[in-house]
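Z., the sequence and structure:
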Amino acid sequence: MFGSFNFSFFGPSTNSVATNTGEYVTYQTSAEYVEKMEAKLTSLLSKVKGAGQVEVMISIKSGSGIDLAENTETKTSSSNGTDTTTVSTSPIIIENGNAKSPIVISEILPEISGIVVVSSGANDVNVRMYLISAVQTLLDLPQNKIQILVGN
C-alpha cells in the first residue's frame, strides 16, 4: 500500500523533517514517515475537546526521495565525419572525516492523497469541523481529501 525508499546508500540512514509545530520527525522509509505522522496526528487530534478516542490513517500517492547535486560531463568525439556527444552525470560527493556523502539539494516527502480520522466524538458537528480544520491546517489538504468518521 505504501511506497518505500531507503536512503541508506546516500549517506545517513535517516532523514529529519520539521513539522508545523517546530518538532522534527525522523524516518527512513515512506511507510515509517506515514506511521509517525499518523501517531502524531492521533495524539494531537485526541486532545480536541469532545473528540474522544481518535485513530488516523493517511494514504499517500508517491514515495519519498531526494534530489542530489550532480556533476555533468559532456564529451564530443568525431569519427568518420559523424560527431557523437556523450553526457554523463554523477553525484557530487563530500568527505567529512571518514564519512562520504552526496550533497542533497532537496528532500521529497511522500505526497499525501487523503486522510481518514475516526473519532468517537465526531457525531458532534462542532467536533467534526474542528478535526477537519486541524487536518487542513497541518497537512495543507483540501476538505474533499479528509474524511471524518464516527467511531465507537
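Residues 1-64+109-152 form a domain with the GMP Synthetase; Chain A, domain 3 fold (CATH 3.30.300.30). Residues 1-14, 16-22 have pLDDT under 50 and may be disordered.

Let me know what you think.
H.
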